[in-house]
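>> received
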Amino acid sequence: MLDGALTSGLIDARATFEVFTRSLPNGYRYGVVAGTGRLLEELATFQFDEPTIEWLLAQQIVSPALAQYLADYRFDGDIVGYLEGEVFTSLSPVLRLEGRFADIVLETLTLSILNFDSGVATKAMRVVRAAEGRRLIEMGSRRTNERAAVAAARASYIAGFDATSNLAAGMLYDIPTAGTAAHAFVLAHESERAAFEAQVATQGPSTTLLVDTFDTEAGTELALDVAGTDLGAIRIDSGVIADAALRSRKLLDQRGATGVRITLTGDLDEFAIADLLARDIPVDTFGVGTKLVSGYTPPGFVFKLVAIEHGSTMRSVAKRSIGKLSTGGAKVAYRLFDDGVAVTEMMIPRERDEDQVRPQSRALTFELVREGVSIVDTSVVAARDRAVSAVNELPEDAFTLASGEPALVSHVIAESAS
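>> returned
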């Protein structure tokens, strides 16, 4: 495309691209924006280095002229969009990139980050709501690749998880870390008692002991024998965890260890957690991994050209393909409220006067990058706070786990509207 644009003279034409999803996936009622901070970090250093240019030339993917162009390429445009942690719905213009047509090289980078991170964050938020305030630890690193593991930990924390077992994510993003010993630790010792004694000697009695390696009830009894009633928690990962939790709670309480917490892990997701709590299964902490980092659904964000320079003006462009329609022109978004509850996502042409928006509204699109430089707080703490606030604005039926219509009505005002 860029070689053709170089030939036609369009490569440096001013261009506007928007990122949005045509519909929410899997009957989800809302989505959570995540990955914006990571994307802006990547854009700041994005370039085609010499080995890359040489490979592109050797593979005859680019012409010598384009190779020279790419060697000098840096993103120096502007980005406007939803702040990380914000809620989105179908057609929400979560990101608008304004630069030149050459910036289309950023499409895959942009979509791969936003689709993965927002998919995990949305799944994580559903888990958070289902857990009803119980502590949540992200434990999915071993079910995805090494870079995605860190990104998933970050996205989960933004959505409200309390900690991650991924130490790299903790170091990079200052996310609280937590974890427990594995079954291998227990099996490596001569006995379960020896393993527990070694762990308590190292970590203190407030540690979490994994009690289900052989027999959960016997393991729970042994954990109390070794650590006493000051034991922090037990973890159950195997078998019918609901029944095991009930029996272990009874044992703990009978021995006066009412303060010992129970952590449950093992292929959990929002549906399993909701079911456990509906049955009054005693649990204080959930560890969620596989179904969070590999069972998420990407929101289906697309990266579409909506305007291109034509002479001295910008010409709106849009797809007309059946099932893949788009709306041309740069847009800004507002959330409309009814008695404090969010009801509508309104997308209007950027040029339209803002005073035409209803008084009970909140702006959603903000300047993120100016002339290639990020000008927004990309910390996970800011995004986490924003996610709590945004989700709390949604109507109660948004949190129903059953598939359904989006919680927010999408309303796009065309450029010709008055």
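>> The longest helix spans residues 107-131.
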